[in-house]
Amino acid sequence: MKTHIRWKTYWEHELVPGDQAELAEFFRNTYGAVGAWNTKHFEGSRSWAGARPELRIVGYDECGVVAHFGVLRHFIRFGTVDQLVAEVGLYAVRPDLQQSGVGYHVGLNVLYLTLLDLKVPFGFGTVRDELREHVERTGRATIVSGVQVRSTDL
Asked: Which CATH superfamily is domain 6-136 in?
């Protein structure tokens, strides 16, 4: 049975407390399946880890949240050049729909069109090694190995 998914793009300030709580529960359930330590950021109704996204792309079906992408525009430095990018994170697909193509065959197209609308020349994200093939399979992403990422999250 194929589920009908509707996609909605939210600016962060448009989310009401109930939306935040629903997303926090979604992340606890989705990320918790990988390991309980992944849920520590999503206590209560907190629906972000690290930097809070400015824009969210959320897929819904009749059961609730199906998939999520968070987007935050900022500059990153390559050598001596500062480059505007859209950092893409908080990527998740509900466990019962993983491997269905919802995230990277449907959701990635919505994300791609959103980044074009934002006029951001590059999207940037990090992925676990286990997801490398999954991301590369779409043809819309290039994985660069050996990149050093520094975070202020202690």
From this structure: Gcn5-related N-acetyltransferase (GNAT) (3.40.630.30)
CA 70, CA 53: separation in Å to the nearest integer?
5
Check pLDDT > 70 for residue 150: no
pTM for the predicted model, two decimal places: 0.82
For residue 82, give both structure tokens.
């500062």
First to last CA, the chain: 44
Could you tell me which residues come within 8 angstroms of residue 29 by beta carbon, excluding any fewer than 6 positions away? 94, 95
Q: Are 114 and 57 spatial neighbours (Cβ–Cβ below 8 Å)?
A: yes
Question: CB-based contacts of 151: which residues, under 8 Å, 6+ apart?
Answer: 50
What is the pLDDT confidence band of residue 138, given thresholds at 50, 70 and 90? low
The residue among 69, 63, 57 whose CA lies nearest residue 7 is: 57
